[in-house]
Design goal:
The complex is a heterodimer of chains A (155) and B (105).
Chain A: H1 2-15, H2 23-26, H3 39-43, H4 47-53, E1 59-61, E2 65-68, E3 72-75, E4 79-85, E5 90-97, E6 104-110, E7 117-122, E8 128-136, E9 139-151
Parallel strand pairs in A: 1-9, 3-9
Antiparallel strand pairs in A: 2-4, 4-7, 5-6, 5-8, 8-9
Chain B: E1 6-12, E2 15-21, E3 32-33, E4 36-37, E5 43-50, E6 53-60, E7 69-75, E8 82-89, E9 94-100, E10 102-103
Parallel strand pairs in B: 1-10
Antiparallel strand pairs in B: 1-2, 2-7, 3-4, 5-6, 5-8, 8-9
The chains are: A alpha+beta (155), B mainly beta (105).
């Protein structure tokens, strides 16, 4: 525990000059973490680490996932993103904005028999791929869509 | 402390279209003001229940926009069913609101 605090602090100092990236050090102050909150995933700084934190090491491209997002978003602070999965038994949908300082934006666990659709609004620092990762029957499926950002929404 | 959510649940066939608007600053922990950096403050988890049964359990990062929006669809809903939403943020603040499913237009 102590070691990880130290590492966090080191990271924090290293990147405190960077605009968005400084959040890692401040995460320590959060007192009550939800038991299921995927801290490793949300602390990941690369899209690949974020994927691995979901257990999604073997991704299958799928056309049954629809990402509804603008091609060009003028305001990176509000990028509407909706994900629909037509894959049977969809268990969870995760959204990764690949070039964000912390790429994993959200994970949605869908109860059995639930409709595999979620819609929300993201902040995006810069033009990047938005990746959806859908877990269904223990397998991971993915789709991507590029969103161009005119004005970044990080900070 | 936390402000109420706006929730709308309208029935379309046997599916309720649920739209939730939460009031939250969703600070990334990097925004600077004259007095310094605004600390990280964001909604971490959102739980949506249909008549007391969980339908969606969301985990969020600070990358969700300020005053977050969440849209979902709940299968097998009927008029008057209760949709309740609870969010928890990284400071342990919570807010719960519910709404009855109403007729769609």
């Amino acid at each position: 525990m102590k070691a990880s605090v130290k590492i966090m602090r080191r990271n924090f100092l290293k990147i405190s000059a960077g605009a968005c990236a400084a959040a890692a050090g401040l995460l320590q102050s959060g007192a009550a973490w939800a038991a299921t909150w995927n801290k490793n995933g949300f602390d990941s700084k690369t899209a690949v680490d974020a994927q691995n934190s979901l257990g999604a090491t073997n991704l299958i491209d799928s056309r049954d996932i629809t990402i509804t997002a603008p091609d060009i978003a003028e305001n990176g602070a509000i990028v509407p993103v909706a994900i629909t999965s037509k894959i049977p038994n969809t268990q969870s949908i995760s959204i990764i904005a690949e070039k964000n300082p912390f790429p994993l934006a959200a994970s949605f666990d869908i109860s059995a028999g639930g409709e595999a659709y979620v819609s929300t609004r993201l902040k995006m620092g810069q033009t990047s791929n938005v990746r959806a990762i859908v877990k269904a029957d223990g397998k991971f499926y993915t789709a991507i869509k590029e969103v161009k950002i005119t004005v970044g929404g990080c900070g | 402390m936390a402000e109420p959510m706006k929730i709308r649940a309208t029935l379309q066939g046997d599916t309720a279209d649920v739209r939730i608007l939460m009031r939250h600053p969703m600070e990334t922990g990097t925004r600077k003001t004259a007095t310094g950096v605004v600390p990280l403050h964001f909604i971490q988890s959102v739980l949506v229940e249909h008549n007391g049964k969980t339908v969606l359990d969301a985990q969020w990062s600070q990358a969700i926009s300020r005053d977050p929006f969440l849209g979902l669809r709940v299968k097998g809903a009927k008029l008057g069913d209760k949709i309740s939403v609870t969010w928890t943020d990284n400071k342990g603040d919570k807010r719960s609101d519910d709404v009855a499913v109403s007729a769609g237009t």
